[in-house]
């Protein structure tokens, strides 16, 4: 059983978690919810032992596993020179056991008669270890997970360092599922999954025998995969617990809010009536003092017992300005080709985007979408082809893995690098992205995925580019933030080239054309391509 007791966390003077306690019993599946910035990821890191709290204790089961939503910045997950097989097997120590078995086999072949008895004893133990760890069907289990998570083109012998950001996240999830711990802790596991892989994961988690603690903005996953909701209240910084699925939670909290509103309205009517009575009694002077005191006490009692309705979550209020218009031609790509060694990523990619147009790049994970964006911007070199940027084009680039952020900077330091001479403008824009007060002094490495996304987008607002190049900009955002940013980008006066599989976001963008990867086919946008976006 997982037991979390009296956890507290502050970032400087800003309180994040206040006296958080809960349990997750064996086989229980709990969803941790709350708005971006409420402290969900921080709490999960504390439970997993990745981050220290300011107080409280955590008791974990014998085996547990944790998946960060920021896998690309977890250096220990990308072992230099390691294969996919080594990486997955290392979750249970099978890689070391196999290496020990092979070493002993080699030693046995060269052993003297005196050395044989001891070596044979060690060899038998090594065989027993392989049996215990399930070595003989390990490849089949690993390949089943890779197939289920739609890691297309990834074999067990491939080097981890050659994978894309989305593929690394899927692989880290496959490794964790292969481990099959008593407690799974997952932070936004569907961010890089297409619809088929998401459905596969839902079914896997439904039948999973261990306990689950999960953060997700995928409402279907929360409905099908959990039986308890833990909500972090961003105003009280405390935890609220609800039994049942996410839909049950919405029903219960919706009814509770309606009851609270009715109760509060009734009490306010009673208070108004009693105040009138008190004023009348006051007019009688000393003859009715005791009655008036009793009425005033009743008023005070009602005032003190009025239910406190939760405040509405604050909303992002933004637009994306263009400081200077570009020329008519914004970007042209001619015969682009990229390969890694003998593996071809794409070839003969041609397109042209003019001022005000929107191009959305569509394709399955591993189709080369992120690589195409990086080669367009000169971040990754091409093997052949040319990219031409038009006159007066100023680029704003949102990278899927937040590589444009310095994790050691504070929020204010990072944003001030864009406009060092205008601190008032910087603080104003940060405030519109919900970085207010002491939040601006928080170190970027401690931010949630959604907060990092908001900061990266705030930097774009400060930059005022006329070409936005966006790589999955809505991945870490909650539903409300996705809608607000989608609407703001829909009203953007510049040019957009974007990789996304978010259908609602695409509809906000109102793209001119789609570029289908890896074949490089250009088509006019039509809703008939939504199924392709879902599977991207």
Write a structural description.
With 536 residues, this protein is α/β, with parallel strands linked by helices. It has helices at residues 40-48, 84-89, 94-109, 116-132, 138-148, 165-179, 195-207, 219-225, 246-283, 289-305, 369-376, 411-416, 423-432, 449-463, 479-490, 503-509, 530-534; strands at residues 2-11, 14-24, 29-33, 55-59, 64-67, 183-187, 211-215, 228-232, 239-243, 329-340, 343-354, 358-362, 384-389, 395-398, 467-471, 495-499, 513-516, 521-524. Helices cover 40% and strands 21% of the residues. Strands 5-6-7-3-8-9 form a 6-stranded mixed beta sheet, with helices on both faces. A 6-stranded mixed beta sheet has the order 14-15-16-12-17-18. It has a 3-stranded antiparallel beta sheet with strand order 2-1-4. It is globular. The model has no long low-confidence stretch (mean pLDDT 86).
Question: What labels would you give this structure?
Answer:
globular, 6-stranded mixed β-sheet, 17 helices, alpha/beta, 536 residues
Helix content: 25-40%
User: Which word captures the global form?
Assistant: globular
Strand content: 15-25%
DSSP strand count: 18
Low-pLDDT segments: none
Judged by helices, strands and strand pairing, the structural class is: alpha/beta
Number of helices: 17
How does the major sheet shape up?
Answer: 6 strands, mixed
As a whole number of angstroms, the C-alpha radius of gyration is 28 Å
Please give the alpha-carbon distance between the first and last residues: 37 Å
The average pLDDT is: 86
Q: Strands across the major sheet, in which order?
A: 5-6-7-3-8-9
């Amino acid at each position: 059983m997982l037991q979390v007791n009296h956890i507290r966390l502050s970032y400087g003077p800003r309180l994040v978690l206040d006296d958080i306690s809960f349990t997750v019993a064996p086989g229980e599946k709990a969803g941790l919810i709350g708005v971006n910035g409420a402290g969900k990821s921080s709490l999960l890191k504390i439970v997993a032992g990745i981050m220290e709290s300011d107080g409280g204790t955590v008791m974990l089961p014998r085996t547990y596993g944790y998946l960060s939503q920021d896998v690309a910045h977890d250096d220990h997950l990308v072992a230099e020179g390691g294969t996919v097989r080594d990486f997955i097997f290392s979750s249970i120590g099978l890689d070391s056991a196999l290496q020990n078995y092979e070493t002993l086999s080699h030693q046995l072949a060269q052993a003297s008669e005196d050395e044989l008895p001891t070596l044979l004893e060690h060899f038998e133990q090594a065989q027993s270890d392989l049996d215990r760890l399930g070595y003989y069907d390990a490849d089949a289990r690993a390949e089943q997970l890779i197939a289920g998570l739609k890691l297309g083109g990834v074999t067990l012998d491939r080097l981890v360092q050659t994978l894309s950001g989305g593929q690394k996240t899927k692989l880290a999830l496959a490794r964790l599922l292969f481990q099959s711990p008593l407690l799974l802790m997952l932070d936004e596991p569907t961010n890089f999954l297409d619809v088929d892989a998401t459905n596969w994961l839902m079914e896997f988690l439904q039948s999973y025998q261990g306990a689950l603690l999960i953060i997700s903005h995928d409402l279907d996953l929360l409905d099908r995969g959990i039986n308890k909701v833990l909500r972090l209240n961003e105003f009280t910084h405390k935890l609220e617990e609800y039994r049942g699925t996410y839909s049950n939670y919405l029903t219960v909290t919706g009814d509770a809010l309606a009851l609270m509103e009715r109760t509060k309205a009734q009490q306010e009517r009673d208070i108004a009536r009693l105040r009138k009575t008190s004023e009348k009694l006051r007019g009688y002077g000393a003859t009715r003092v005791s009655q008036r005191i009793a009425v005033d006490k009743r008023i005070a009692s009602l005032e003190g017992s009025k239910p406190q309705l939760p405040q509405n979550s604050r909303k992002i209020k933004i637009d994306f300005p263009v400081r200077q218009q570009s020329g008519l031609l914004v970007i042209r790509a001619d015969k682009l080709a990229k390969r890694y060694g003998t593996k071809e990523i794409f070839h003969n990619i041609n397109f042209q985007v003019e001022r005000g147009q929107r191009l959305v790049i569509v394709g399955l994970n591993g189709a080369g979408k992120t690589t195409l964006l990086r080669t367009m911007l000169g971040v990754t070199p091409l093997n052949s082809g040319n990219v031409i940027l038009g006159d007066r084009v100023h680029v704003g680039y949102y990278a899927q893995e937040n590589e444009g952020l310095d994790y050691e900077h504070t929020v204010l330091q990072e944003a001030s690098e864009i406009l060092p001479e205008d601190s008032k403008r910087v603080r104003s824009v940060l405030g519109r992205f919900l970085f207010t007060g002491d939040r601006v002094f928080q170190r970027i490495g401690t931010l949630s995925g959604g907060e990092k996304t908001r900061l990266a987008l705030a930097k774009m607002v400060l930059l005022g580019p006329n070409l936005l190049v966006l790589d999955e900009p809505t991945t870490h955002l909650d539903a409300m933030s996705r809608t607000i940013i989608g609407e703001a980008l829909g009203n953007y006066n510049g040019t957009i080239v974007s990789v996304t599989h978010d259908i609602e976001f695409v509809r906000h963008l109102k793209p001119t054309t789609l570029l289908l990867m890896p074949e490089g086919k250009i088509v006019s946008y039509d809703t008939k391509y939504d199924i392709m976006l879902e599977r991207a």
